[in-house]
UniProtKB/TrEMBL annotation, chains A, B:
Listed name of the protein: GH92 family glycosyl hydrolase
Domain annotation Glycosyl hydrolase family 92 N-terminal: ranges: 41-296
Species classification: Bacteria, Pseudomonadati, Bacteroidota, Flavobacteriia, Flavobacteriales
UniProt GO molecular function: carbohydrate binding; hydrolase activity, acting on glycosyl bonds; peptide-N4-(N-acetyl-beta-glucosaminyl)asparagine amidase activity
GO cellular component, one term: cytosol
InterPro entries xref list: 6-hairpin_glycosidase_sf (IPR008928), GH-type_carb-bd (IPR014718), GH92_a_mannosidase_put (IPR005887), GH92_N (IPR041371), Glyco_hydro_92 (IPR012939), PNGase (IPR050883)
Enzyme Commission number(s) from the entry: 3.2.1.-
The UniProt record lists the keyword Translocase: no
BP terms from Gene Ontology: carbohydrate metabolic process; glycoprotein catabolic process
Quaternary structure and interacting proteins, as annotated: Monomer.
Superkingdom: Bacteria
Xref: SUPFAM superfamilies: Six-hairpin glycosidases
Residue intervals of the Glycosyl hydrolase family domain: 302-761
Protein source organism: Polaribacter cellanae
Cofactor(s) the record lists: Ca(2+)
């Protein structure tokens, strides 16, 4: 084994800190009790079909950069192509026409953004039109931190890997003329505008506008900077520009009007909406060229530094190995035994998907753009970005608190940075813009949840102040539109908002519950009482006629006509956003007992909950109801239904196939649901550090706890799952540290401070 | 008078060299024998109509920057608007709709280029569409280095001045909301693409693509960089972007599709084809804001340095005074007495126009872009640009040799720089691009002419090598297409070129004549013989049938049918570019005696020359025939015709009006013709340091010679011109230094080494 050292990123310049790959490798060898490493189970194709919106691109854990095949710009009229629908991913498994590799990408989101800095290797005469230079491809291989294919038209094998902020590709060119293109004129979205400047025969730098997410905020477009370095000097370089066609007499005189223009061997900035660069080679024999693309959201200089510091003089293979090792190191925090190979594959791929977003925003030197103003700030730690909090508060962040508490702590700190800079906690933050996507005020839930799980190394005073601000400020409150009605009436009305008056009320309730829980923990008794009271105001919207939640008008009357089925599959529905009453009514896991009472008791509750599933109102792909299968645990005697529902949902929706996610992964939310569900526990109520217990998929799950946060080294969940092949068995008994445990819920504290949770199925 | 010092530009950083304005002012006071200073006679409106293509913008002598009112983008269908024809100037006198002030502009050229970095002050609600924020204007005032108007719609008085690389404007805003716009989405040409980045509430930086001249070479577009500084911090800043409308479903979902987007208080780069920035103020009382825009063709950093070093903390008024003083200093090199006020006005305005191009390309620190590759080079002296040599070799450069020999020397050095960088002398160089506009190989003519006039402080060896290269290289010769036929047959044929086979032959002849003259001076006898012989090969194209030059076919036969009238007014004509046989036949001033012989002697020659004028074939607006009126001097006894023709051409074509130039000023060529003609001398044959003498317009012309090149302090031309009000008088006698002089030609040497030339009219 070749020994090489990799510099650890460090913003203190004088303090050089190396971690040696060899050490990581040794740790693996010691720890390795698998035939395969966890990283070997990752299948990045999962989620690349059925709107999963993941991509198989090479990425490092929480990387700013990924190198994704880009195959959505081939034929605008096909259903899976960009612009034919609201396509949010650079790659769709079914598509076949590759037009390059994009270097900044989102994974598992519901709106298009990024998907730019597209590279493409070609051979023969230079062609700059992607519809002409695009090609089919074959021999796809995707692993954690690695992607490869062969571009059929040119017989070029492409391999890609990535460090945090740098994409590294290796193009295996045949003999003859070859070209490496960087096309800034095409991307995943309609956003345009770029700059390219060829620095030398081995380097080009550039800027590309990206944004805005969901096309919500035109003013929230911003630049991404990059530097591309090539391992071999090109024989010719240049930039192309495709201007729009001009009208008028002068346009007629302009010989090149509307035609693509080539700037050969040109070394100054080229600016415009549709530009690209080419590096051309004339190879006497088959030759490989490595391309490193460093990225920054601060400046070209930082992009260059990111590239340099992260990749030094390391080869593609060295970087690929290192990134693979980083992935394996993180994935190995959970070891599983038992289950099928597919079980392990979907499990580790899900864990992999939870380690993509939130991702790194700060540069190697610690610089990152501040919220709103995009001023350059410096962090001594991490500034994470891509906080899709309406999604992730339900499952992802509590999982991070359990498995990667340091990362979760850094995420909380990033959220507080955002509060410092913008005056508000994030809702759906993306690269220092607040996209204000979806409803509710979810950040506080995560802050409270994290603290209550014992991750306390952040400024809780500030966190509490921030949570309280959005819960109490009546005017100009971007996080809680309709707050006045909410406080006055207890709910939003059909006049207050056209975007989910009921669901928004529920979201505010959950956040207020979170504030109450944290207030209690911090000894703020008055606040505890106030916010506890507020947290159940959804009860005003419970309509006994339907045994469901129902929107109310401004005057307090019920919204009529009311069809609780309306609203599924993104139908417009006044009371509920992205869902209907069935999909929202039970989303009060902090108050299930009262809901049960309102519905007429346990049996009536179970019956109503059954209806959701039996009448196909349950939507595995959307967040509000993903907790539903666990709610049977609240109905004593019906816990087996949780076990049945969860088992069959896993079987139905999560598979080792490109379509193996139920829909958008929602930056790891669905994946986190799967991980929990396969381990046999699920956080039953956000901001309440409690897990519902269900039947695990694996015989043994070993979680290596982080000793900076937890006293025990490991938490082990065992079961006789391998005897439950047909999912006919149910939990017979539970043992905590060998002692019989009589509840189907277990607190976070009890779990992590115990050593073994044993679940017996029969 | 306020005393203030102005830093002299200096590339040696540690050596600070100040020249004090007060000193310049003192010199004026001592020298001042005028009621008005020369600078006071400059009327920058001359040439702004009738296709003169000058502009009234504020500019420093040979400035990189000018601040020109931009009124050609108001209504695309009007005849004097951009894009309705090949409009080459940012301003047309007849137009009325102002959309801003452009900061890089060409003066007196025949193709559109530059005309960008448009500023516009407005009041009231922000409007970013120039068709909406544009306005009529009034109270125009233009002086050397100063322009002012009032923008009617907003009642804003605008004043502008400039240093070499910085435009300075003063906006007198009323009370209320005011906005200063910089629009990179509109310019004189179809070129697009820019970047804007707001640096602070008093500063914005940017880049704009410009080029290519005449839309000839798509690859010769390049960036101009700028930094704008405002004297008062804005209350709001922002950037706008007008993207093109996207098609497809995604476009429909994009609420702002195709709509102008505002990036408020945004501090990162905005890139694209149609972008602009705004600085908004809320004034409690009428307020002036000064805007300084520094420009560079190297980088934003250099633009910032140019601005800083040139304008320091000086106010608008201080800079305006300084620039005015620089103009006056240069214009005062020629003092005239007698003549009318209009005579002085057209004279000094013409001299002003000869001091605009060639202009400065290098930055304050000496950096400039190299030819072709645009690499950063550094000059210790000046790098001039805008060499429209097919025009300027005829009159401008010899005038510079006489009046501003140091400038002419620097121009020659810049031409040799271009040779060093590109391997070829320039033909029509513009900001380090070779536009290859027009025909012939004119640079050598200027190099020889300059040297032969005694301006020798350049590398004549290199100059000769460069001239010889284009005259002898048979393959891949960009300066002499058709050289093989030229050498083999003595002329280009109708097969060799479709763009003026005869005229190109004549141009090559003249250059070869220039090479011969320099060869002789340098003692290269063999070359002298070879090139002397080549210089008269046009004779092969003299057709006795017409007594004119006529194109020949490849086989040596005459091109038929032949109508010598065809080709005037830009009609297509195989043998002659931009002209016809009448307008070209006499363009052999180095061989007039032989032409006379070919035509059948003196009388026949005079008759034929008369026909040109009498049959309205003479074109004062085009270069090939501007020497014609002086050719009568070669026909002894007919010199009075030169005097008559020149006098009446001055009267007819050169007036103190916007239409007071015969057509394109051609970067000062027409102006130089006028200056010479009004002084009573004209360079009768390029590369032959000889002047034809005609009747002056002024009683006394005093040229202050540059002692670095000439031993005498002054050259004085006197006459009794003021007695010649009706132009009925002719030259009766000429005295050189008091001695009777018997020729109508005088050598440069004799002229500058004599002290007085006295011309008696009767």
């Amino acid at each position: 084994m070749k020994k090489f050292c990799f510099p650890k990123e460090n913003h203190l310049k004088n303090q050089v800190n190396y971690c040696c790959f060899i050490l990581i490798a040794v740790v693996f060898m010691v720890n390795n009790s698998y035939a395969q490493q966890p990283v070997d189970y990752v299948n990045p194709f999962i989620g690349t079909s059925n709107y999963g919106a993941t991509n198989p691109g090479a990425i490092a854990p929480r990387g700013m950069v990924s190198v994704s095949p880009f195959n959505v710009a081939g034929a605008p009229n096909l259903p899976h192509e960009k612009d034919s629908r609201w396509l949010s991913n650079p790659y769709v498994y079914e598509n076949t026409f590759l037009t390059g590799f994009s270097h900044v990408n989102l994974s598992g989101v519901g709106c298009p953004d990024l998907g730019v800095i597209l590279t493409m290797p070609t051979t023969g005469k230079l062609e700059t039109d992607y519809l002409k230079y695009g090609s089919t491809y074959s021999n796809e291989v995707a692993k954690a931190g690695y992607y490869s294919n062969t571009i059929d038209k040119y017989n070029i094998k492409v391999e890609s890997t990535a460090s945090i902020r740098t994409g590294i590709s290796k193009y295996h060119f045949p003999q003859g003329q070859s070209n490496i293109l960087i096309n800034l004129g095409v991307g995943l979205t309609n956003e345009e505008g770029g700059m390219l400047k060829i620095v030398s025969d081995t380097e080009v730098e550039g800027i590309r506008n990206v944004g805005s997410f969901c096309y919500y905020k035109p003013e929230e477009s911003y630049p991404v900077y990059f530097v591309a370095k090539f391992s071999k000097p090109a024989d010719e370089t240049g930039v192309w520009k495709k201007p729009k066609k001009q009208n008028g007499l002068e346009g007629q005189w302009m010989g090149y009007n509307g035609k693509t223009r080539l700037y050969k061997n040109y070394k100054k900035e080229v600016l415009g909406d549709s530009i690209g660069s080419y590096f051309t080679y004339h190879f006497k024999k088959p030759t490989t060229v490595e391309v490193k693309i460093g990225v920054s959201y601060i400046s070209i200089a930082n992009a260059r530094e990111n590239l340099k510091k992260e990749t030094q003089n390391f080869s593609f293979d060295e970087i690929n190995k290192s990134t693979n090792a980083q992935w394996n190191n993180l994935l190995s925090k959970i070891e599983v035994e038992g289950g099928t190979k597919d079980d392990k594959t979907i499990f580790y791929t899900a864990l992999y998907h939870t380690l993509i977003h939130p991702n790194t925003l700060n540069d190697y030197n610690g610089e990152y753009p501040s919220m709103t103003k995009r001023e350059t700030k410096t962090t001594k730690g991490k500034r994470f970005t891509v906080f899709s909090l309406w999604d992730t508060y339900r499952s992802l962040h509590s999982l991070m608190s359990l498995i990667y508490p340091k990362q979760q702590s850094d995420m909380v700190k990033s959220m507080l940075n955002i509060y410092d800079e913008s005056g508000w906690l994030p809702k759906w933050e993306l690269n220092a813009t607040e996209t204000t996507t979806m409803v509710g005020d979810p950040a506080g839930i995560i802050l409270a949840d994290t603290y209550l799980r014992g991750i306390k190394d952040f400024d809780v005073k500030k966190a509490y102040e921030a949570m309280r601000k959005s819960a109490t400020q009546l005017e100009n409150n971007p996080l809680r539109p309709g707050i006045k009605d909410y406080l006055q009436k207890g709910y939003l009305t059909t006049t207050t908002t056209k975007s989910g008056s009921v669901s928004t009320t529920q979201e505010y309730n959950i956040t207020d519950f979170a504030i109450a829980q944290l207030a209690k923990e911090l000894g703020k008794t008055d606040d505890y009482k106030v916010f506890s009271k507020r947290s159940t105001s959804y009860r005003n919207l419970f309509d006994k006629e339907f045994n469901l939640l129902r929107p109310k008008n401004y005057d307090g009357s019920w919204f009529t006509p009311f069809n609780p089925n309306t609203g599924a599959n993104f139908e417009k529905n006044l009371g509920f956003i992205e869902g209907n009453s069935w999909q929202y009514t039970f989303m009060v896991s902090h108050d299930v007992k009262e809901l049960m009472r309102l519905m007429g008791g346990k049996k009536s509750f179970v019956k109503q909950l059954d209806k959701v599933f039996d009448n196909k109102q349950f939507d595995m792909a959307n967040e509000p109801d993903i907790i539903y299968p666990y709610l049977y645990n609240y109905a004593k005697g019906y816990e087996w239904k949780t076990q049945d529902r969860v088992s069959s949902l896993i079987k139905e929706y999560f598979t080792n196939k490109p379509a193996g996610l139920p829909g958008n992964d929602d930056t790891g939310t669905m994946s986190a649901w799967l991980i929990y569900s396969m381990m046999g526990i699920y956080p039953s109520s956000p901001a309440e550090p409690l897990y519902a217990i269900t039947s695990p998929v694996f015989d043994k799950v070993t979680i290596h706890l982080d000793n900076r946060y937890y006293k025990n080294d490991t938490l082990v969940i065992t079961s006789n799952a391998s005897e439950n092949k047909n999912n006919k068995k149910h939990i017979q008994s539970i043992y905590m540290n060998g002692k019989k445990y009589r509840s189907y819920f277990i607190s976070h504290d009890k779990l992590v401070n115990g050593k073994t949770l044993k679940i017996i199925l029969k």
